[in-house]
Fold this protein.
Amino acid sequence: MTEITTEQATAAASGAAATERFRSKQHAGTAEVGTERVDTLVSELLAAAHDIIRRHQVSYAEYDALKSWLIRVGEDGEWPLFLDVWLEHVVEEVANERREGSKGTIEGPYYVPGSPALPADATLPMRQGEQGTPLLFQGQVTSVDGTPLTDAKVEIWHADSDGYYSQFAPGLPEWNLRGTVTVDGTGHFRIRTIEPAPYQIPTDGACGTLISAAGWHAWRPAHLHLKVSAPGHQLITTQLYFKGGRYVADDIASAVKPELVLDPAPVVDGSGREVRYDFALDKA
Ligand code: MBD
Ligand code: FE
């Protein structure tokens, strides 16, 4: 993990950490993709670009702007961010189109495996006085046929109330708002956390430059990230959103699906909100 030493959250620091994290997955590289497949996909991608250049009469000035922007994406470590924001949603759509259980959506650049193991009734690691509305998130993991999955794990990670992820922004405890929950003997879990804030794509990096050059907004709606797994079943990578929240209808990463929007209720005696969401996993 790249050490983040600056006090300010910068695009280059979070990009470097995301790039480092991706590299450590050790599955990158063209070796796994056959020659014929590379030929087909890259030829079609280039042909689409050639067509755009002709149709829009792209100039040398615009070509050079593209070249310098692409160089900056690499310098800022923002290839994981760029790809996960603007392409991953279609890869996920294709990968999971035949699933019958709960909906998945994109993983994004900020997942870290190996978060602290927690019991079925758990509070996520957080700072003393962690800001944000307390949230009780509970549910059950079953197979698509309704059988409770009593060996299921629910991995959860999310941003804090400033929109920052631990290990990708300075000054946060290593595993802040990250945990791996084992369900109880009936497949249930109860997770106490705080509601995250919407996430803003860093404005000082290459992706931020593209967003302002194109006149787009830089935001994802507030979301919880999850990976839910059980032996003999397909792992679901998903996200859950909050009804009525900003950008739910206008996510820059195009990763919201109607089935993934929570509608938490106020907790009757106490502060904060609570919501139930159940996961149904397809068989492997
Ligand atoms: C995020 O928090 C995220 O979930 C995605 C997909 C892209 C950028 C930041
Ligand atoms: Fe996220």
Remarks:
- The chain has six helices and 14 strands.
